[in-house]
Amino acid sequence: MAGPVRSLDRMVELVRSRKTPVRVVIAACAEPNAVLAGLEAARQGLAEPVFVGDVDRMRGLPELTSGNFDAFECLHEPDDKKALAASLDLLQEGRAQFLMKGGVKTDVLLRAVLGRKRGSDGLLSHIGVFPHPREERLLIVTDAGVNIAPSLTRKIDIINNAVTVAKKLGMDPPKVAVLSATEKVSYNDMVSSKDADILAKLCRMGIFGDAVVGGPFALDIAVSTDKALAKGVDHPAAGRADILCAPNIVTGNVLYKAVTSLMDLPMAGIVVGASYPLVVPSRGDSDRSKFYALALAAYLAGG
């Protein structure tokens, strides 16, 4: 790939340009929003849906009376847990490349995925990709949806997951800002600053490969070179971060929702760390964010 992917729309273009679309399995498919998203993904040339679940009930949903499923594979399994297991079988057999949640609870889905975990799979974590508000490039925020209060070890995995995604988007080497409330390190009073300091030291030891990890950084230092300069912070990731690593799910989720709700920016949010991407949309996600999440999963699954 020539250069970084600088916008979500460019990512969509790259997915559409592929000769063969990837397949997304929709687990427990009798859920109208998931089915509509799958049909739209097919219409937009992003992915070919495979519907697994109570197909008879799906076809009878009032929102889908005009839906035509003849062109797609449909596997009838009325029991949601069995439908989820069959969906994971398709992924393991290579008959689908990523998964989208239908009418099954997120925690049930993630536990089932972890139960099929392969030796090469790591920690599951959530990443959100969104357009930088002031620059023509993308930013990643992690983890806003899976790990509640990650330990230092889990933060290493969370960063590695995000770095993998960043590199596939052409951010090479990725620059990671580990967030806290301040750039000052306080081992006793602020655990997030302690973890960030240790993660930055681990980076210097080569634990993250060629990725550049710095911190602790307050958000303004991470995204503004002027603020970093004013505070005397001189680091390659200061003001130029590609990845914003939140200290916990509360901070990550607030940042995620601030981007989508206050700034009205789209967000492509998926779960990574398994051998295939997982699209686990929130009920509060906009239609365009769900669309971009499918596009991101298709982009990663096809590359």
Strand order of the largest sheet: 8-7-9-6-5-10
Question: What is the end-to-end distance?
Answer: 10 Å
Q: Indicate the proportion of strand residues.
A: 15-25%
What does the largest sheet look like?
A: 6 strands, mixed
The counted number of beta strands is 11
Chain-averaged pLDDT = 93
Helix segment count?
11
What does the overall shape look like? elongated
Helical content band: 25-40%
The structure class reads alpha/beta
- Taking all Cα atoms into account, the compactness measure Rg is 20 Å
H-E string: HEHEHEHEHEEHEHEHHEHEEH
Regions with pLDDT < 50 over 5+ consecutive residues?
Answer: none
Task: Give a description of the structure.
- The longest helix has 17 residues, at 152-168.
- The chain has helices spanning 8-16, 32-43, 55-60, 80-92, 106-115, 152-168, 191-204, 219-223, 225-230, 249-262, 287-301; strands at residues 22-27, 47-53, 73-76, 98-101, 125-131, 138-142, 175-179, 212-217, 243-245, 268-272, 278-279.
- It has 303 residues and is of the alpha/beta class.
- Strands 8-7-9-6-5-10 form a six-stranded mixed β-sheet, sandwiched between helices. Strands 3-2-1-4-11 form a five-stranded parallel β-sheet, sandwiched between helices.
